[in-house]
Design a protein that fits this description.
With 281 residues, this protein is α/β, with parallel strands linked by helices. It is 42% helix and 19% strand.
Length: 281
């Protein structure tokens, strides 16, 4: 992972959130000359993501800390598996501990949750993709974690592609535009490098857009049976994406409808943190 300026700013903010006025406990109890080792371990089974950010946190607190990486991002973690060893001033390790683990637990939780969805549909051609339902400021990190779990990224931001949703359609309907008109307007005004995707909620809407030039059709909150019909109508000429409240219990049936993509907001906005801990030797 490349530690970009935006990630550095986020890490610095997180450190200051915890350490802007010092560490009363460590300063009262731990000698600044005390040297030792600590190990980050996994307390449950999962998929690792975010080790480079974690290393950056420790070295931001103390550049002299030596960090030995023992596991890699996308690795399958077993119980009590060693992830990294940190050597140096124990005061520095204790100051950085919570912030470092907060990043690693959060990102590993997302990669682990994503992997569950990927595994559930592995017998189909569908791909799991994320959404923009991410924690403010964490989008690039969370989307990275999705990739580590075997998923794929949808738009990084609003400039990445044209996605015409129901509110766009309703707004333009006030000007008398049909769905076909909306798609044509998007193509006329967009760069040739940007694909046009449009959301449809039923088969009647689908029939209206199939011949209108959209490259991707988002099937929003459709039943798996209707999705199967939609895929057949698109005849492999248009990419189909399923979306709308899909969870781990429904994703398999959705994938078996034949759709190309399944966007799941839950893999970022509802993934539980992975249980990891740091132990002083």
């Amino acid at each position: 992972m490349i530690i970009t300026p935006s990630i550095k700013s986020l890490v610095n903010l997180a450190i200051m959130e915890d350490y802007s006025m010092g560490d009363a406990t460590t300063e009262a109890l731990i000698s600044d000359n005390l040297i030792g080792k600590a190990t980050i371990i996994s307390d449950e089974i999962g998929i690792l993501a975010g080790i480079d950010v974690t290393k950056y946190v420790f070295n931001s607190v103390d550049p002299l800390l030596k960090i030995t990486q023992l596991s890699n991002d996308s690795d399958n973690l077993n119980m009590n598996q060693k992830i990294a060893q940190i050597e140096g001033k124990l005061a520095s390790i204790l100051i950085a501990e919570r912030t470092a683990l907060n990043f690693l637990r959060k990102l590993s939780g997302i990669s682990t949750e994503t992997s569950k969805y990927v595994k559930a549909i592995s017998h189909t051609k569908a791909k799991i993709v994320d959404t923009r339902k991410t924690t403010p400021g964490f989008r690039s990190l969370e989307k990275y974690a999705v990739r580590m779990g075997g998923g794929y990224n949808h738009r990084q931001n609003l400039a990445d592609g044209i996605l015409i949703k129901d509110n766009h359609i309703k707004t333009l309907a006030a000007d008398g535009l049909t769905i076909g008109d909306v798609i044509k307007k998007a193509h006329d005004r967009a760069s040739h490098t940007i694909k046009v995707e449009i959301e449809v909620e039923n088969l009647d809407q689908l029939n209206a857009v199939i011949e209108s030039g959209a490259e991707i059709i988002l099937l929003d909150n459709m039943s798996p049976d209707d999705m199967t019909i939609a895929v057949a109508l698109c005849k492999g000429k248009i990419i189909t994406e399923a979306s709308g409240g899909i969870n781990i219990n429904t994703v398999q049936k959705v994938a078996e409808s034949g759709v190309d993509l399944i966007s799941v907001g839950a893999i970022t906005h509802s993934a539980p943190n992975l249980d990891l801990s740091l132990n002083i030797a």
